[in-house]
Design brief:
heterodimer; A: alpha/beta; Rossmann fold; four-stranded antiparallel β-sheet; 8 helices; 25% strand; globular; disordered N terminus; B: mainly alpha
Chain lengths: 244, 226
């Protein structure tokens, strides 16, 4: 069942007829999506479904071939700087400078986003991810789990209104996964809008309020989690992949 | 927040990393010094060189050593996806370009503080013009080279053969600027008045401004995926 709502002007995030082609290959084939403020969408899909492409376009890292993305009243193409000031992202990569300390990394990014008192914000975030005692260690010398927690803190320096997460649980140790889960719940509680793409059905369904399935570049399923039988979602997921 | 502030954050971050690691600066100064020593041996130790040959030797050392720093500044941003983090931040690609060009400019200038005195020690016996007369020429080349180099290093950093592609793309681009600089340097080493060097300095200003403007305008296309 495909459920795509009519786009309204009041939506926090609206994506209309978004398309992306790489040469002859269509990675996205007309994605329509709308989210209200505070919604948490988890998009599932197999490799090559277009999940990362969609997220990269939403992050302004890729130019769409056609279509429109708006967050609040900012158009992604026309007001990219205003749009990006509302954005946070956790990707496969850490986005950390290995030759800066944990504190310097967060302070730099906070300053770049125009955060008032960037040092205080950096220290606050280090506390939230339990890294206060490692503030002066070079990122390169932190363990993988600590780097992952620092990555999560980095994405939150500007207290983003829209947080994009690309397979955020991949490679996380249990501690980092629990920190991420806590941070996501905290952000969701503060009405931040979150879009996460993942293969991991269990992790994805933990906190999301909306569940979507992307297959072959199309959004083939979108439903509120409260209306979904989560115990049979896996079966539903594979059915949609087969029919896509 | 103003563009100037964002550029200064990025510049300070890069210089802090560079001063901590010293990997670009040390390799640039060491490689440049090595070229000067080899040239000195080739010319014959203790023998003087004329101003034209001296100017050529200085610019070979400066340009080849500067390539090492250029490649590193962008390679660092590509590691761990930091360039993507910059691109999704409110800083514009043009501001990233200016900050990176300033980093390259600073690194070139710092390495020249070592290379120029060494050049005078090894070759300067017969030069009538002192090191300070070279300053406007060095600054103009640094401006043009760092602007063109920042653009080309952003393009080449995304390729597998970065270290090969960077000089192959950059050297033809900056050839006119370097040719003018060699001629102007020969004049400065011969202590000719600055009015005699305007024939080279004026087109050097024009080239440096063209490289800077072209770099600023083209940089967003070189750094983003399509």
């Amino acid at each position: 069942m495909l459920k795509v709502k009519e786009l309204s002007s009041s939506a926090f995030l609206s994506i209309s007829d978004l398309r992306k082609s790489y040469g002859g290959l269509e990675a996205l084939r007309g994605v329509n999506l709308e989210l209200q403020r505070g919604e948490f969408l988890c998009l599932f899909g197999p490799n090559g479904a277009g999940k990362s492409t969609l997220l990269k376009i939403m992050a302004t890292l890729l130019r769409p071939t056609a279509g429109q993305v708006r967050v609040l009243d900012y158009d992604l193409r026309e007001q990219p700087e205003e749009y990006r000031s509302q954005l946070g992202m956790v990707s496969h990569q850490s986005f950390l400078y290995q030759d800066l300390t944990a504190l310097e990394n967060l302070e730099f990014y906070a300053a770049l986003y125009g955060v008032n008192q960037p040092r205080e914000r950096a220290l606050e975030l280090l506390g939230q991810v339990n890294l206060t005692d490692r503030a002066d260690m070079l990122a390169a010398n932190l363990s993988r789990g600590m780097q992952q927690r620092l990555t999560i803190a980095r994405a939150l320096v500007n207290d983003p209104a829209l947080l994009l997460l690309d397979e955020p649980y991949t490679g996380l140790d249990e501690h980092a996964a629990s920190v991420l889960r806590d941070q996501l719940q905290m952000l969701h509680g503060r009405k931040r809008t979150i879009v996460m793409v993942t293969h991991n059905l269990r992790r994805g369904m933990e906190s999301a309020t909306q569940l979507g399935i992307l297959a072959k570049g199309k959004l083939v399923y979108l439903q509120e989690k409260s209306a979904v039988d989560t115990t049979s979602f896996e079966q539903l997921y594979f059915q949609h992949l087969e029919t896509a | 927040m103003s563009s100037l502030q964002q550029i200064s954050f990025l510049l300070k971050k890069d210089l802090r990393i560079e001063l901590r690691k010293k990997e670009s600066l040390v390799s640039m100064a060491f490689f440049g010094a090595l070229i000067l020593v080899i040239m000195n041996i080739a010319a014959g130790i203790g023998k003087s060189v004329d101003v034209e040959s001296g100017a050529g030797i200085l610019w070979v050392a400066v340009i080849f050593s500067s390539i090492l720093g250029l490649g590193r500044v962008f390679a660092r941003e590509k590691e761990h996806g930091c360039v993507a983090a910059l691109l999704i931040s409110p800083i514009s690609p043009g501001e990233i370009f200016i900050a990176k060009a300033l980093v390259n400019f600073s690194l070139m200038f710092l390495s020249q503080l070592i290379l120029v005195p060494l050049f005078y020690v090894l070759f300067g016996a017969n030069f009538r013009g002192g090191p300070l007369t070279l300053l406007p020429i060095l600054l103009l080349v640094n401006l043009g080279f760092s602007a063109a180099g920042t653009l080309v290093s952003a393009i080449s950093a995304g390729t597998r053969r970065n270290e090969v592609l960077l000089p192959i793309l950059l050297f033809p681009l900056i050839l006119p600027l370097i040719a003018l600089a060699v001629k102007a340097t020969a004049g400065a080493l011969d202590a000719r008045p600055i009015s005699d060097l305007l024939g080279q300095l004026e087109p050097m200003i024009a080239f440096s401004l063209i490289y800077s403007a072209a770099g600023y305008l083209l940089f967003p296309f070189s750094i983003k995926e399509d």
